[in-house]
């Protein structure tokens, strides 16, 4: 069935597979209204029944030119209730009023009990075929292309919570394979808080807001969370990852993803292999710094959601490679002494390299948030032939939970019929009836065996690509509520992670623990957590204790000796800069030809330039503070340009790097500017620009400038010659150096731990 989508100026459907990606451009550039969708057009092309020609009824969520009731009756008015006279009482018989309000009353469905806040995108997965050696899964065969839908999320916050809180991020992928749905429901952290699903309600109750006042929202910095994780030390590893930069990703686009559990792959001959799944972002693994994350929560609570949608709309399609770590399927299920069934343990990549098996490209935004992002239903039990589960006790509980939760959340058992959840493979189940049944099933015999429907549908064995569970031997053992002895070590891998981080990353971990525990009221919880930290590393414990003003305890047991895994650090690597955002601060007297060419060079590099001017455009009337001049020149000659941000709307946190084109004088709306001369504002530079520069400097962002930029930097107390601060005569040369620095994500040397870095 043909879908209807708005087309861009070239006639291509933005972001749809098969259509040419539009060039990278500022996605929030002012634009006219989008062309109407096929089912929203005016009356001309419509048939007398109100349906557009050539489009089937099923393809349309809405059809015809006229507003109707849900029963299809056309309406003359939807603004006034039916009344006995204009001033009279509203009449109960107003069917349209009752239908409209009743539907509205039921517009919300229960939000997800965890991972309520999320954003998603459509895409395509192209298999390299390299996994063909270990699995018969058709979508992992060479060259196979599979449509996907990926939803990213935070765990703790409710649906309207802010994006950049410190939390684990969900990374759930639905593969619409030719053999049915495969869901890889992972996180951006490779380990989990608990080893057994029976503890899931405990960790979630502890992390969610306090039950009496329902605060704090979407935070782990509170007593119940730290109470639980300090008593339940198997959570130590995951908590340490949360306190690291991984807990505050820069973007969904710059997160790794992990399947966490060990899965079992099966090849065509029935041979099995154990694997762990990894998503590796092409854009690199980058994080925010804590102050930045906190500011964003106020300045732009939709920061991650917006970033994902803007990137896709601009044609900078986010990409990840899917990879597997491969282990022999031995009866012990151990690799180098690491228990592969323990979801609180990683296998360092240095011991088992991640082997790439395919490429994921997200290339289309959802058309409707509710229908797609909200109603998508993932399940770790959605498997295809060639992929099976292991006996990881956390995974076992998940296999129960996901189906169960959708029945409440989506109002019954027929949620697989929702368009976003519908398999692309042919479905012929014998599931019937139930709430919201939308299929009109035929046949008289929804049971097997039958003769009335000629025995249909038939069974498929392994040869016919039926799903056959691996006949794994089940050990004969007493029935117990116990964990294996190999699950008992809770501190070796946290120490491994800690020692794998660079000094600046460790500094961030220390600051995060100090912040979070500083928000805890109960002294006993802080002290207990310090004891946990002592078991990881004395420096970590002592530094956090110093920040809290408490004595640092000694480790109760000898510190394990570990081999660090450099792959776990985010610092010290070079990454592509495509899709990164560079702000260009302009002002009165800026050389606008340079601004134009620098902007173009940023676009040519696949990055997003945002011009920041004293006020918005387009110019009309009298110029104030030279704004008119800026915009006139920007719009003059060639492609029209406008300022996408003003000194009032811009904040440093939106940019990965800043360029200063001249000395930006105070805008007309700077604090008190209408009543005061520039000098009264503390200088000739707009105070909001000074704030932006000071923040960008503190957050380790590259800063460049030319012309009068030196004055702005000096007033922002940024030392000349500081690392990552570049002043030059030529904008293009400054940009080249800024982009080089951006490849390292931040100017790490600016952080206090820098001395230890070298
Ligand atoms: Fe879960 C949602 C990831 C353990 C029970 N989980 C959910 C989502 C992600 C994960 C990404 C959001 C899916 C979406 O976007 O719709 N969960 C994980 C990972 C886990 C994990 C990586 C450990 C390795 N989860 C886990 C356990 C249980 C659950 C142990 C219960 C025993 N998870 C759920 C749930 C959710 C869910 C209650 C809420 C909404 C949903 O399923 O659809 O069933």
From TrEMBL:
Keyword Metal-binding: yes
Keywords linked to the UniProt accession: Heme, Hydrogen peroxide, Iron, Metal-binding, Oxidoreductase, Peroxidase
UniProt enzyme class: oxidoreductase
InterPro entries linked to this entry: Catalase, Catalase_AS, Catalase_clade2, Catalase_clade2_helical, Catalase_core, Catalase_haem_BS, Catalase_immune_responsive, Catalase_large_C
Cofactor: heme
Domain Catalase core: 68-456
Pro residues bias: start-end ranges: 19-36
Region of interest (Disordered), residue spans: 1-56
Composition-biased stretches (Polar residues): 1-10
Keyword Iron: yes
SMART domains: Catalase (SM01060)
EC number: 1.11.1.6
GO terms of molecular function: catalase activity
Reactions accelerated catalytically: 2 H2O2 = O2 + 2 H2O
Tree of life domain: Bacteria
Entry's family note: Belongs to the catalase family. HPII subfamily.
Function: Decomposes hydrogen peroxide into water and oxygen; serves to protect cells from the toxic effects of hydrogen peroxide.
Designated name of the protein: Catalase
Lineage: Bacteria, Bacillati, Actinomycetota, Actinomycetes, Streptosporangiales
């Amino acid at each position: 069935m043909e879908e209807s989508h708005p087309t861009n100026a070239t006639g291509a459907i933005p972001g749809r597979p098969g259509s040419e990606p539009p060039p990278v451009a500022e996605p929030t550039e002012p634009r006219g209204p989008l062309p109407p969708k096929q089912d929203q057009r005016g009356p001309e092309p419509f048939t007398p029944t109100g349906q557009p020609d050539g489009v089937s009824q099923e393809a349309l969520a809405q059809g015809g030119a006229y507003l109707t009731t849900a029963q299809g009756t056309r309406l003359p008015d939807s603004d006034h209730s039916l009344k006995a006279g204009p001033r009279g009482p509203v009449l109960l018989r107003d069917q349209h009023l009752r239908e409209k309000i009743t539907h509205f009353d039921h517009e919300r469905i229960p939000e997800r009990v965890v991972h309520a806040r999320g954003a998603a995108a459509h895409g395509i997965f192209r298999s390299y075929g390299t996994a063909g050696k270990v699995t018969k899964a058709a979508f992992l065969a060479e060259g196979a292309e599979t449509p996907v839908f990926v939803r990213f999320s935070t765990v703790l916050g409710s649906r309207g919570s802010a994006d950049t809180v410190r939390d684990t991020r969900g990374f759930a992928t639905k593969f619409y394979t030719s053999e049915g749905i495969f869901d890889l429901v992972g996180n951006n952290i490779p380990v989990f808080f608990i080893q057994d699903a029976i503890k899931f309600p405990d960790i979630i109750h502890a992390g969610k807001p306090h039950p009496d006042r329902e605060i704090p929202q979407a935070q782990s910095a509170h007593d119940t969370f730290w109470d639980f994780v300090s008593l339940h030390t198997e959570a130590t590893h995951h908590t340490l990852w949360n306190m690291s930069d991984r807990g505050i990703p820069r973007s969904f686009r710059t997160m790794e993803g992990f399947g966490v559990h060990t899965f079992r792959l099966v090849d065509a001959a029935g041979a099995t292999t154990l694997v762990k799944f990894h998503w590796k972002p092409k854009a690199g693994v980058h994080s925010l710094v804590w102050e930045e994350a906190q500011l964003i929560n106020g300045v732009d609570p939709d920061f991650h959601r917006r970033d994902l949608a803007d990137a896709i709309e601009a044609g900078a399609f986010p990409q990840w490679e899917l990879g597997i770590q491969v282990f022999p399927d031995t009866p012990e299920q151990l690799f180098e002494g690491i228990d592969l069934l323990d979801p609180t343990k990683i296998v360092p990549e240095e011991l088992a390299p991640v082997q790439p098996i395919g490429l994921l490209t997200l290339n289309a935004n959802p058309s409707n948030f509710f229908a797609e992002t909200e109603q998508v239903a993932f399940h770790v039990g959605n498997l295809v032939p060639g992929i099976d589960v292991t006996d990881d006790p956390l995974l076992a509980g998940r296999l129960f939970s996901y189906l169960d939760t959708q029945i409440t959340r989506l109002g019954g058992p027929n949620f697989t019929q929702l368009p976003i959840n519908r398999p692309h493979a042919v479905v012929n189940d014998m599931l019937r009836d139930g709430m919201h049944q939308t299929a009109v099933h035929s046949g008289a015999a929804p049971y097997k065996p039958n003769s009335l429907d000629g025995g249909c549908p038939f069974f498929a064995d392994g040869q016919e690509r039926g799903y056959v569970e691996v006949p794994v031997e089940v050990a004969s053992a007493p029935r117990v509520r116990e964990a294996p002895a190999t699950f008992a070590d809770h501190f070796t891998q946290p120490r491994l992670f800690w020692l794998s981080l660079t000094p600046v990353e460790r500094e961030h971990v220390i600051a995060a623990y100090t912040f979070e525990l500083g928000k805890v009221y109960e002294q006993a919880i802080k002290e207990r957590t310090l004891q946990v930290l002592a078991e990881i590393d004395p420096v970590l414990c002592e530094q956090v204790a110093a920040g809290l003003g408490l004595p640092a305890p000694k480790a109760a047991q000898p510190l394990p000796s570990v081999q660090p895994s450099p792959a776990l650090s985010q610092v010290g690597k070079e990454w592509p800069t495509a899709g990164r955002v560079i702000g260009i601060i302009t002002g009165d007297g800026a050389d606008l030809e340079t601004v134009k060419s620098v902007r173009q060079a940023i676009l040519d590099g696949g990055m997003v330039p945002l011009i920041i001017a004293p006020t918005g455009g387009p110019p009309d009337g009298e110029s104030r503070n030279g704004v008119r001049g800026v915009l006139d020149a920007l719009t003059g000659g060639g492609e029209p340009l406008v300022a996408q941000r003003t000194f009032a709307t811009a904040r440093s946190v939106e940019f990965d790097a800043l360029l200063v084109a001249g000395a930006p004088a105070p805008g007309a709306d700077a604090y008190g500017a209408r009543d005061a001369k520039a000098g009264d504002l503390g200088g000739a530079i707009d105070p909001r620009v000074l704030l932006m520069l000071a923040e960008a400097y503190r957050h380790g962002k590259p800063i460049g400038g030319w012309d009068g930029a030196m004055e702005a930097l000096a007033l922002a107390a940024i030392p000349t010659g500081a690392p990552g601060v570049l002043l030059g005569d030529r904008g293009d040369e400054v940009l080249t150096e800024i982009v080089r620095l951006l490849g390292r994500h931040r100017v790490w040397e600016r952080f206090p731990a820098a001395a230890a870095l070298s």
